[in-house]
Amino acid sequence: MHAPLGTFTDASPAAERLDLLPAPVANAVAAGWGGVPAESVVHVDTDPEWADTAVFAEHYGPELLNRSANCVVVAGKRGSDVTLAACVVLSRARVDVNGAVRRHLGARKASFASMDVAIGETGMEYGGITPVGLPRAWPLLLDPVVADEEWVLIGSGRRRGKLIVPGKALAALPGAVLVEGLGV
């Protein structure tokens, strides 16, 4: 199979590589979502040493800097209530945690969740967190420019490997909400 992005030598339908994905991601890929056919999700096997975006693009294609999205876990706090959510923005942007995220969650304060909370609550590896397979109760805040991309490279739940999905497939994930101004 040829990957729709980058210069990957090992690309396959993600449904054929479930053994390389953590359980929550594998379950979501196997089940599908929002009418997205499982075969439209591509897994590319990559070196975990090159997982960080800039280094990754050096090895797999510079166009990936503009076609990759990052998923981060945030915590919105209002009094003693804490709401965990995930935010997805293109890798060239940063998440507007103190503006768009805080307002959308109705929180007094919002911040990035700690590494322990992020990996403990998602069942994924830090540096590989993906919007695919997140807890269903979480809001998934998505920058509309991500959903507008034909293909987007995202984490696979592990530092080794990535998923390539249609942008519109991310907007169809459970809990997904398009948030203008999320990525700045």
3D architecture notes:
This protein is of the alpha+beta class. It has a single domain, classed as YbaK protein (Alpha-Beta Complex), CATH 3.90.960. The protein has helices at residues 23-31, 53-60, 97-105, 115-122, 144-148, 167-171, and strands at residues 11-13, 42-44, 69-78, 81-90, 109-112, 140-142, 152-155, 162-165, 176-178. Strands 5-3-4-6-9 form a five-stranded mixed β-sheet. Strand 7 and strand 8 form a beta hairpin. The longest helix has 9 residues, at 23-31. The radius of gyration is 15 Å and the shape is globular. The chain starts with 10 loop residues before the first strand and ends in a 6-residue tail after the last strand. The relative contact order is 0.22. The mean pLDDT is 94. InterPro entries: YbaK/aa-tRNA-synt-asso_dom_sf, YbaK/aa-tRNA-synth-assoc-dom. Residues 51-171 form the YbaK/aminoacyl-tRNA synthetase-associated domain. This is YbaK/EbsC family protein.
CATH architecture: Alpha-Beta Complex
Query: What is the count of DSSP helices, taking H or I runs of 4+ residues?
Result: 6
Sheet with most strands: 5 strands, mixed
Gyration radius (Cα, Å) is: 15 Å
* CATH fold name: YbaK protein
Shape: globular
The total domain count is 1
What is the CATH top level name?
Alpha Beta
Q: What would the average pLDDT be, to the nearest integer?
A: 94
Give the end-to-end Cα distance, rounded to a whole number of Å. 35 Å
Relative helix content: 10-25%
| CATH evolutionary superfamily | YbaK/aminoacyl-tRNA synthetase-associated domain
Given helix and strand content, the structural type is: alpha+beta
Which strand-content bin applies to the residues?
A: 15-25%
Strand order of the largest sheet: 5-3-4-6-9
Series of H and E elements: EHEHEEHEHEHEEHE
Q: Quaternary status of these chains?
A: single chain
The count of DSSP E runs of length 2 or more, i.e. the number of strands, is 9
Q: Which segments are poorly predicted (pLDDT under 50) over 5 or more consecutive residues?
A: none
